[in-house]
Design brief:
Length: 522
């Protein structure tokens, strides 16, 4: 199989993303990561743009070993001189010259004719060849250029000494079939093209950057220009990680290879995201947070049996330690049991049913249930307390200009008493309503609340100590709703007290009332 060169332009086209400005140290760090990634070419920048840009490109050229270091220049001697001055100390320098070739760019932007553009291209390539034999030529807006003129100017570029011919889809206009056909036509019609390399540069304005780059490879391109995370002008460029893993995963279809060490993809992605301030969307291909995550129960079950059922790449191939089975409302019992074992819990079928039901209840309220959430659920659900008193529902009305009022309905061994009460605050009102529904009073000794997990939808745990029949008992409640957690904790403490006291259905008097009640009438 033939090799496809990976030309990374994160430091040039990628930095042109709106709002991105990288300092010299940032660029050096990214360049080192790109070298470790084993890209073939690093386009370090556009030296003529500023003194700082020239200094950054020169610093990269001095320290980077392995990849070719390229500098961009327009088709004039001043740009080319600046480019060469910046990369002259590189182990493997390349000058990359470009000019627009489409009629809309020539007439509206450059104000020149086709013949003038052709002459400028040839002259600049010949001038750049005075400094280095490695010269690349790009026909900007090639996909909107008249094909006959494109063949003419690229043929002249090859004759002038360009070793790489880049055919950019500058505005992301092409479709994959059109782009493939363009490369096939150029390969057939550009005289003396071999041994020059045809190169592709695609933009994502229509979401086709990666598809177009792969189509160009099918058409004969053997260099792909791309950026980490697909950053760049407007909607961005072809994403390096996507095209590399596309070629690798579907080697049967493309029959080409790259030199890329794909295990460095994730760390490179995270570095570039951190330094540019451009986040990677969770569902981003290859390096997104969800790229190797599975939540649906059917998917999780398949993954647990054979990960080939739902993964076409191995997470370790891109630098991720392992796939993730994300526990959420779509997760199944099988995945939940496996996670329990991973956390060190060996549950009976009955215990698993109990904890799984609580997990599902939480998952309906919280998009992602963490291991800490699960451990908290296990801790509260498997306390060995018989539920003599159950909480059916509660309703609270409160505000800075309203008297806190709570309505509670309990389940007392099948009976469902309901009671409303007011209190000094919503929690106090709930506790009074629970006492009223039971027709007996309890004394709150201690109340404490803590966040089990982080974030706005954190799981909260309420811990109370309640005097039940003269004995103080501990109660715990867990919920994303602090008021619900408080009610559950209070009921949990009462159940512990009743269990210790031996209160059962047989010891109850009239339905809905426990023996020995002494309601305070609240």
């Amino acid at each position: 199989m033939s090799n496809v060169l990976i030309f990374d332009t994160t430091l040039r086209d990628g930095e042109q993303s709106p709002g991105v400005s990288l300092g010299m140290e940032d660029k050096l760090q990214i360049a080192r990561y790109l070298a470790a990634l084993r890209v073939d070419v690093i386009e370090a920048g556009f030296p003529i743009a500023s003194e700082g840009e020239q200094a950054s490109v020169a610093a990269i050229a001095r320290v980077i070993e392995g990849p070719i270091v390229a500098a961009l220049a327009r088709t004039n001697e001043r740009d080319i001189d600046a480019a060469w001055e910046a990369i002259r100390e590189a182990e493997r320098p390349r000058i990359h010259v470009f000019i627009s070739t489409s009629d809309v760019h020539l007439s509206q932007m450059l104000r020149m004719s086709r013949e003038q553009a052709l002459q400028a291209a040839v002259a600049s390539i010949r001038y750049a060849r005075r400094f280095t034999e490695d010269v690349q030529f790009s026909a900007q807006d090639a996909t909107r250029t008249d094909l006959d003129f494109l063949v003419q100017i690229l043929t002249a570029a090859v004759e002038a000494g360009a070793r790489t011919i880049n055919v950019p889809d500058t505005v992301g206009y092409a479709t994959p079939s059109e782009y493939r056909q363009l490369f096939e036509s150029l390969a057939a019609r550009v005289s003396g093209l071999n041994p020059a390399v045809l190169s592709t540069h695609t933009h994502d304005d229509l979401g086709l950057a990666t598809a177009n780059a792969l189509a160009a490879v099918e058409g004969g391109a053997r260099q792909i220009e791309c950026t980490i995370n697909g950053i760049g002008e407007r909607a961005g460029n072809c994403a390096l990680e996507e095209v590399v893993m596309g070629l690798r995963t579907r080697g049967d279809a493309y029959r080409v290879t790259t030199r890329i060490d794909s295990s460095q993809l994730l760390r490179s992605s995270r570095l570039v995201s951190g330094l540019t301030g451009i986040p990677v969307q969770p569902n981003k291909a290859v390096v997104g947070a969800n790229a190797f995550s599975h939540e649906a129960g059917i998917h999780q079950d398949g993954m647990l049996k054979d990960r080939n059922t739902y993964e076409i790449m191995k997470p370790e191939d891109v630098g991720l330690r392992e796939s993730k089975l994300v526990l959420g409302k779509h997760s199944g019992r099988h995945a939940f049991r496996v996670r329990m074992k991973d956390l060190g819990y060996e549950l009976s079928d009955d215990q698993l049913t109990e904890v799984f039901a609580r997990f599902k209840h939480l998952a309906d309220r919280k998009p992602h249930v963490s291991d800490r959430d699960i451990e908290a659920i296990v801790g509260t659900q498997l306390g060995g307390v018989e539920e003599i008193v159950g909480l059916d529902y509660f309703l609270v009305t409160s505000g800075n200009s309203a008297i806190p009022t709570a309505t509670v309905r309990l389940n007392l061994c099948g009976d469902r008493p309901e009671f409303s009460a007011c209190g000094g605050g919503p929690v106090d009102a709930i506790f009074r309503a629970i006492d009223g529904a039971m027709d007996r009073s309890h004394r709150l000794v201690d109340y404490r609340i803590e966040a089990v997990t982080d974030g706005a939808n954190a799981l909260g745990q309420v811990i109370v100590r309640v005097d039940v029949q003269g004995q103080v008992h501990l109660g715990r409640g867990l919920s994303t709703d602090v008021l619900e957690a408080s009610a559950l904790a209070y009921v949990n403490a009462i159940n512990r007290g009743l269990q210790a006291d031996g209160s059962t259905e047989e010891q109850q008097g009239e339905p809905g009332r426990l023996s020995g009640s002494d309601s305070d009438g609240s």
